User: Fold this.
Amino acid sequence: MNSIKQIAAALITNLALAGIAHTADLPVATDRLPDELLGCWKWNDTKLDKLDSIYNRNRASSEDCKGFGNMLISSDRYVMNNGNGEIDCRLRSVIFERRGEYRFRFQCGDEPAFKSTMTLRDNELTVRETTN
Assistant:
């Protein structure tokens, strides 16, 4: 009888560990932008695309990140310079989050809120914005 209890205990432990490993990949609810996205990003004008904007990590300080094409991401917003001035967009909600792939809702000033998908691969950030 002891061996049946030991087998059952081992089986339960293995199932619990498998469940923990599986849930590690599930989206995590949060109200802030992930740490891996924080910092200064420089627009990569050599990778022009009609739908996506491509950025490369720039090790500039927040003060040096104010130039044209730069985007500074903090925990609750991003600020970018598109050549017509600074655009300050606040995070309204995190819709989906999985390491390397994110979907957020932002609002920039008085403009309507919009969804933005950000995909991070190595030091390259792809941003696609869509309206509601």
Q: What stands out?
A: Residues 92 and 106 are 5 Å apart (CA to CA). Residues 5-29 have pLDDT under 50 and may be disordered.
